[in-house]
């Protein structure tokens, strides 16, 4: 039943265009196609190498003219073009587990790209299997994390797949040493060339975040240029009035957002997340400029804006601490550290990540309730919280109520905790005496 | 030599006042005295119980009329009064290790009270030993963390000490059931009574932070009242122009702060930290409203403002990631988690905390360089960084330079990382076939 | 359905004896009764203090004349006596999770007492609730772990219970300063006195292990005396022929044991465990002499013999590594460390232990197969293993088969792993040059 | 001073033989030469490819006719031959840190090969730098761990080195598909061919252990054949009388071994370790048969015998627990897990391993004292221990002495630890009521 529904949904989502196939090809490649210069050149180049090419373009919320991209791929000779709206499953199956985990890489990065990559690769593999393609290809560079995230998911879900990674093939990267070579190639092969000049950095966008890196940002001392950010308002241009939200969680996942002032309400996953993006973006929330450690062992500089994800990060952290036992929290925190690293390194589709996701999900059983917060000038301020399953006990903690608690017990607790410390001191003194 | 210097310093710092001692006392108590109603009553009550009382008041940066407090203690019958300026050692010996560690409790609390407590208790124990006092006492409640932090340090440094904790003694807490009882007692014993009404919450202040809890804040849904904060400007009243700072680190510790605009420079620990407090406070940096798990097993609600500490937290995190190897960082992070918990729970003076501090300090050997950041409307924005010992290699990471790096290697790296994932899939498929 | 079955089983198991109840008592106490001198005196003493006493004696496999103990308790004035055979649930619900976890405390102790304590306390609490008793009591000392394990389970399952721990009550421990005082009291109160002299150490036995401590063993340099061990043959008297077993696991739990030589087979949990005890005991397996860290912060010396548990520890470790993914194993290992500590410290009935047990159980999904091993002269030698869900791939690992594996990939893998190391060296050399 | 001594020592150790060098070579390769068929063929093959070859043979305690190996290498055309006795530094600089750490991989493997590899590679790199060789080479296969351990150390210490790994080069591995091809090649190139038939498994030996794998052992169910082990007596042929030893530790490292019976004493590192090997070997100590997870992601089956290392593992564990604070122990244990993994994966010469070694060494400051143990029929039995810096306090732990300890404190300790558990139960009951 569930399966059927899914199929219907996805047949509605998929817009497939057939084109003439070549004879005697080396085989069929499903290419992760973005519509941009790089993957357009790769599409043509793959055909040049003797492959039939199926273009695959996933909509994970990036700004894109999907219709135009589809036409373009078709015009460049793609045998078929699949454009798939994965936004709902991106939010529900990838971002939500990230929210449950409070996933964060190296204490700062909310993993927007890392979450999208396995979602896209999974879609691409599905098409490759469905179309009987032995090959998949992508335009990720040879120094980054994305090649790894992309390929590990492909190998995990389709172990016999062959991967063509042009930017790691000498015959490709020696031919296209810079953007000019690509432009030249494009002109010679009827590939439409972008009319606007390329920004002096590279970008990756999806509905969770935009990342900026490379180019002028490679100098770690260079400040990010004004006007770079696209999802968030500059804090100094942000409104002078905060928005106050109430976010309701069930099972560690947001199920409803209410704007206290204007009474706006969202309760479906995608809509809710987009609304948080809107509010966060309006108030300039979620910008970071960091140095990070790539899986591949080099440090890189990345700038990110994650408006809605940042709001959820703070809200979930708060409701979790309110409802989760202290010691469970500690264990869950260590699992989250592992999850974040697995995610960053591209191991979403690994036995260890499946295991950790299972455990984290279990930990969220009672993470429910409402968090009130205000969003203002780049900040998320937690204002209050309530929950039917809170472990917070006002009578227990109150300074004015003794309740069931006997303060004398604390004395014994401390004395017993001091046993070790006093023994240690006894020994140290003995040593000091000797020395 | 060093010892002598210290003694001179501390004799300069200490302002001792003698008073008449009682005959046939139960012994001498060094009381952690704050000058407020509670510890004033405790002082008198202890005398009533037959102890001689030495008042000990540490200056860790709280707003206080130390002269008046001294006179008051004397007037109440303290045998001696010690007022000690510990601000420099608080910053250098307690806050700095916290900065090196990126110490943070439960992902949010920067541990301002936890850092001050062992500093104060150490001072008090020193006096107790010096004065031959067998007892120490304090005014911490029986439900909180401070009693533990205070007493564990005392037991660790002075294993034979006897601790009098009035709020855990039935003869005390049954006599003083509320503030009114204290007021009554004060009136009857010539203890000056505060003229301003008590705020409907309790506060703990030192130069690192102010914490607010209890009273109306005990309802976790109640928003913190306007006008409560004392170290930080409300973000909506904060200046419309950012301050841009450059903070220089050596050995993981800030050694210089420069205000890029007005060229203000600080390079001694205390001065530098106070300056960061000033800037952070002016821009409303470092407010949090959290639920936290006390050591004692109950959840409480705490509100904190940590202006300078928050700036340093972000700046240190940045320079550390810039200069520290990725895998060292991971291990150091797990040590920091332990350190933060030890600190929060009161185990500063424990063998495990000494061990962890040693290891963390070792990890900071090459954590040096300069971080540029702007402080604005409650936010700290990292703008750039530079370091003589950075492991960031621009040529290595650049998209435009191949350098020493062979992109083909990444293919092998990924394939080998996929070995396990493909095996797992192989097995899963076998199972699925069977089922 | 399940519930009903359980009730029938337990009504069959329980042998209840009623006695006359006192009027105007302080209330009813369920006492963990062992039949020995200590708890017999406690029983009488509790009655003396004005309580009605219900004796509770759990059979967790210790050598005991349960009938005699029952009569004795009755004779001493117990209102009721419950004797319950918990051996099956001890194995299935406590030892099995320990086996799944490879639970081991401080790398050596297999936690035999720690596993039994919550099993017994759970039974006792069930009776207390059923009988409407507000009190429970036990004979554990005030310096050990057992008091904690016992009481934490009681508080967790019956939060309003009052616990009477005589060895922590001054009115009791000051009255009974040594064994002689107990003997004297026994004689005066008609309590039968043991005729055999007490061994110069104390013992705790259940079907998993026997522990020995105290008395002459308190000197950590004293070698354990000959003849002390009761479950295991001295290795020098053990047979000169090994026993060879095959143990089959499902879900990380043993489901069948076969003796290869004599074809003995066991496949129910209790029977299987007792058989492993027999074989392990015969060959002197599972003796350790250790120093351990009690929860209470002191070091103690303990000697343990755990014959069957030791065999299972080795067998399970082997089948687990054979069938579990490497990275899952690492995460599971860190969970097991936590589980072992929770268990040792008495937190079986805590949210964190429930969480960890859930996660560990999940990790055991594919831990199945057969392990062959021989047991000989105190050793367990793993001989071989097989499994339908092994991740071991002989073709992949074979030196003689290339298979799907391209050795060239390893070169890329190594080069990428070396990126960091070379950068580190680059920086170190720069520093060395400068210095 | 220290440097000079070292140089003298190493010039004594090194036996260098010059041979005629070729003209117009591709460069010089330092080959890790074992004297066996494989590396002899590689030596000749490298010359064939146009390299000048320096043979490097490290003595880490393996059984080998070093003189013969040297002559053979010379005869095969090596330009120079270096034979270096690294046994002392292997023990002191590699095995000792392993002992301090209680290093063990996946709970069972004592890392004998992992410890030797960086020791050998370091020596080889030293020669390569000294001789101005740009290349190093080795005979490790493309599926194993040793290639990684070897090469990571080379890259770390000599970042510009080029590594020739013939078993990963298609031109080599496609030419030598099996042992017959090597034999054929050997005959054609005047390489002496082994006269004894090869054992149906492969072996790696050093003074710490011998490992056995491959061949008939690749079937994980096949029992290890009788007569395979070379360092240890079969337990059933082991003596019927134990040896009783006393091992003294300082700084976590053994400094003296005394045989209680015959009064044999050793106190230098190498001698002491060889003596423990002798005793352990005589009694059949330290055999394991395991499945392990290679770094490269595949499971393999390995059989190991580590006689002296196993004795030290048990003895060190005991003295460590006796002298180290409980909480320090836990942190150190987590560092050891990391260390063991780093070691196994070949990261000895990494910043993270240097950091962890530093921390572990720090933790050993007070790990000193004497452990008495008996070695018998494959077992190591700890009998007793003593230490000037033990944290074991007999009076504190004794059941017969109250000492400074107030048992009432334990009641408070337990009650406070139960606060969380009771709250959890309170919430669970509420839920159960609702449901």
Automatic annotation (TrEMBL), chains A, B, C, D:
<comment type="pathway">
    <text>Amino-acid biosynthesis; L-arginine biosynthesis; L-arginine from L-ornithine and carbamoyl phosphate: step 2/3.</text>
</comment>
<feature type="domain" description="Arginosuccinate synthase-like N-terminal">
    <location>
        <begin position="29"/>
        <end position="192"/>
    </location>
</feature>
<dbReference type="InterPro" id="IPR023434">
    <property type="entry name" value="Arginosuc_synth_type_1_subfam"/>
</dbReference>
<keyword id="KW-0436">Ligase</keyword>
<dbReference type="InterPro" id="IPR001518">
    <property type="entry name" value="Arginosuc_synth"/>
</dbReference>
<feature type="domain" description="Arginosuccinate synthase C-terminal">
    <location>
        <begin position="201"/>
        <end position="422"/>
    </location>
</feature>
<dbReference type="InterPro" id="IPR018223">
    <property type="entry name" value="Arginosuc_synth_CS"/>
</dbReference>
<keyword id="KW-0835">Urea cycle</keyword>
<dbReference type="InterPro" id="IPR048267">
    <property type="entry name" value="Arginosuc_syn_N"/>
</dbReference>
<keyword id="KW-0067">ATP-binding</keyword>
<dbReference type="InterPro" id="IPR048268">
    <property type="entry name" value="Arginosuc_syn_C"/>
</dbReference>
<dbReference type="GO" id="GO:0000050">
    <property type="term" value="P:urea cycle"/>
</dbReference>
<keyword id="KW-0028">Amino-acid biosynthesis</keyword>
<dbReference type="GO" id="GO:0005524">
    <property type="term" value="F:ATP binding"/>
</dbReference>
<dbReference type="GO" id="GO:0005829">
    <property type="term" value="C:cytosol"/>
</dbReference>
<keyword id="KW-0597">Phosphoprotein</keyword>
<dbReference type="GO" id="GO:0000053">
    <property type="term" value="P:argininosuccinate metabolic process"/>
</dbReference>
<protein>
    <recommendedName>
        <fullName>Argininosuccinate synthase</fullName>
        <ecNumber>6.3.4.5</ecNumber>
    </recommendedName>
</protein>
<dbReference type="Pfam" id="PF00764">
    <property type="entry name" value="Arginosuc_synth"/>
</dbReference>
<dbReference type="GO" id="GO:0004055">
    <property type="term" value="F:argininosuccinate synthase activity"/>
</dbReference>
<keyword id="KW-0547">Nucleotide-binding</keyword>
<dbReference type="InterPro" id="IPR014729">
    <property type="entry name" value="Rossmann-like_a/b/a_fold"/>
</dbReference>
<keyword id="KW-0055">Arginine biosynthesis</keyword>
<keyword id="KW-0963">Cytoplasm</keyword>
<dbReference type="Pfam" id="PF20979">
    <property type="entry name" value="Arginosuc_syn_C"/>
</dbReference>
<dbReference type="InterPro" id="IPR024074">
    <property type="entry name" value="AS_cat/multimer_dom_body"/>
</dbReference>
<dbReference type="GO" id="GO:0006526">
    <property type="term" value="P:L-arginine biosynthetic process"/>
</dbReference>
<comment type="pathway">
    <text>Nitrogen metabolism; urea cycle; (N(omega)-L-arginino)succinate from L-aspartate and L-citrulline: step 1/1.</text>
</comment>
